[in-house]
Amino acid sequence: AAEREHTRTGMSKAALKQDFLDNLFYIQGRFREVAAPHDLYMAAAYTTRDRLLQRWVKSAQAFKTLHARTLCYLSAEFLLGPHLANNLVNLGITGTAQEAGRELDLDFDAILEEEEEPGLGNGGLGRLAACFMDSLSTCQIPAIGYGIRYEFGIFDQAIEDGWQVEKSDTWLRNGNPWEIPRPKIRFPVLYGGHTEQYRDQNGQTRMRWVPSWEIDGVAYDTPILGYGVGNVNLLRLWKAEASESFDFQAFNVGDYYGAVHAKIEAETISKVLYPNDEPEAGKELRLKQQHFFVSCSLQDMIRLHLNTVGPLDTFADKFVAQLNDTHPALSVAELMRLLMDDHAMTWDDAWETTRRTFCYTNHTLLPEALETWSVALFERLLPRHLEIVYEINRHFLDEVRMRFLGDEDHVRRLSLIAEDGERRVRMAHLAVIGSKAVNGVAALHSELVKSTLFKDFYDLWPEKFHNVTNGVTPRRFIVVSNPRLARLISDCCGQDDWIRDLDKVRELESHAESTDLQAQWKAAKLAAKRDLAAWLKQATGVALDPEAMFDVQAKRIHEYKRQHLNALHIVRCYQRLKQGLVRDPVPRAFIFGGKAAPGYFLAKLIIKLINAIADVINNDPEVNGFMRVVFMPDFNVKTGQRLYPAADLSEQISLAGKEASGTGNMKFSMNGALTIGTLDGANVEIRDAVGEENFFLFGMTAEDVHEKQMGGYRPWDYYHGDHELKADIDLINSGLFSHGDTKLFRPLTDNLINHDPFMVLADYRAYIECQHRVSEAYRDQQHWVRMSILNVARMGYFSSDRAIREYARNIWDIEPTPIDL
Ligand code: 26Y
């Protein structure tokens, strides 16, 4: 028994090899000679998981006996990316595992490649939740991530004839070795029906909800290990199943078919992730999903509290819950309901507990992206919650009236219910009113939150508002994805403690002039570019010259992110080359990646435009020695990890005031790309950190944008006032990129000329001129490399560890609980 224990937990090469073979045999039922690549991956995953579970059990025991205050991160999305390589890094056994693999004659990289990533998120918000899970464990903060175990995550993107085609994601098809099903951790979730008054045993009048539909949520747990620590936190995702009691009723009346149908209906709830990163009105299933995971999570927290600490009056001392945008904002009403209706708390006590429990992070200012639910739908699905929302509103608006005597306009603006047109519940207002803290995700964004979106709330409760600038984890985005750069940094700094304390990379600054380091730096970048070029060649057929500047824009496709501004620049370069206007061109590879929401027509047309331009340019021998364009299909965490290390230039060109923070900007810069960007989101802070001389700034400020919009913006004037801009748009309309079809791109170009809501034309000239400066700078390779080193050296602030420490100190009031290895 002692021997087995050792095999499953030991960190030596021998232990890893033995456990790998055991897992291959006893879990996969295979031996080395007949194992398929996927069997080998599963055995490697289980071997790694064995080591996690040991640490997990220790963590859980310690947190329980210490009654550790715990952060619950409530998020509809966790965009985790592949687990295996990351867990090996966090365990500190990548090298040992590689050697063990060699001795077993395994292809280590091929095994890593086998893993299907869990794509349980759309983009920035979901990936932020995943970076935060890594940092919470690394910073030793006891935490539970709560979300939905979608059977189908974000769609896989294929490009066919230049268009995006969505393919369904089947990440669970071959099994998921990282999760542990907990069929006994199961909670009922109620929907529909009506409410009624009744008298309890003490003669008190109380409310009771008589729902018409009930399903179960079942827990699936994934252990999240921190880097170089024993701490393992829990990611608990809920799967929807038919409720046992409901099935039973149906069987009793002999309705077998009905019972099976009910099962299918129930399981629909956790079936698929909504592939939008902006709500389009009132999708009933989405509201059902939100209530589903919120209700399960809060019931679970209450159960944990009753089992460990005791009475619920101390609930808010044990737990603090962070709402990742408004998607879990129903929590405010659901916790009130659970405390009052199921646990007999008074309104005042329940409200006090609720308000002390929740904190809310806002991720967008775009008014069209703020969630509201029609009162009619809300009432039909969640009648008890609507009553509670009305009651919260009544208490709250009385407070408002007291503060702003006679100002009913104020009351109308702050109300939980929007009364203009169809009555709707404003989820952001519910989140602000029900939380003790509200934060934006970058300095500029948090200021705009206070001065525009939530100005009235800020006037009411200024102390509630915070900023926590986003960060990203250097484990996944440097160590896992860019091992060459990681080695270089460790060599240069003399140790690898920068991986847990990213401020330590500043040591690189003092070596920025070293020609030795510069040569190695350049070589690491070139090697990453070779790798990417080889991958892109087999994925798309397009060959890139690794010596060319790799100019990359990778992020969701959105008008506000302005991929079409980038496209206009490419058309400009093309025309200048064709007209012989460039004497000595700096070769560039323009690389794009990103998914469009399936129903977002203009975003999909932008993808088509990029691919159409690529087709012409890549096949024009007069220019294709100087420029190439490629759209990397299926941008996700896994493909992203290939992209960041290979970028020379990072495109962060959103219209100022629209990108709340951005996190890709940080990932690129951490990997030594220089940024061309506007003063938007975290770009502002990145530029401050790396120094204005190491950042290519262009375009209007958020204030400029505001003024121009007030003064009546006329894109038409720009189109006619700039002959190059006009020539670029006209060339797109000429049919050159569309086999003579002059109509294809008109929805896009007409929109730019006549409306241009994101002011592409107003920033065009500044962008083109800035790109010119970029090219000139790239000619001086020594200077470029120096800037690249300084970018990395100064990125310490943008580690998600720093963000988590700020939350822990300023918002959550949680201390680390170290777990010894
Ligand atoms: C309501 C539903 C359809 C929905 C689903 C996902 C709405 C929004 C989203 C996702 C939003 C998102 O990813 N926002 C991004 O959050 C990042 C992390 O804070 C920011 O860096 C980025 O600027 C912001 O656009």
Automatic annotation (TrEMBL):
UniProt GO molecular function: glycogen phosphorylase activity; pyridoxal phosphate binding
Family note: Belongs to the glycogen phosphorylase family.
Cofactor entry: pyridoxal 5'-phosphate
Entry superkingdom: Bacteria
Function per UniProt: Phosphorylase is an important allosteric enzyme in carbohydrate metabolism. Enzymes from different sources differ in their regulatory mechanisms and in their natural substrates. However, all known phosphorylases share catalytic and structural properties.
GO BP, sorted A to Z: glycogen catabolic process
EC number: 2.4.1.1
A Pfam family annotated for this UniProt entry: Phosphorylase
Modified residues (N6-(pyridoxal phosphate)lysine): 667
Keyword tags: Carbohydrate metabolism, Glycogen metabolism, Glycosyltransferase, Phosphoprotein, Pyridoxal phosphate, Transferase
Catalytic activity: [(1->4)-alpha-D-glucosyl](n) + phosphate = [(1->4)-alpha-D-glucosyl](n-1) + alpha-D-glucose 1-phosphate
Protein name per UniProt: Alpha-1,4 glucan phosphorylase
Top EC class of this enzyme: transferase
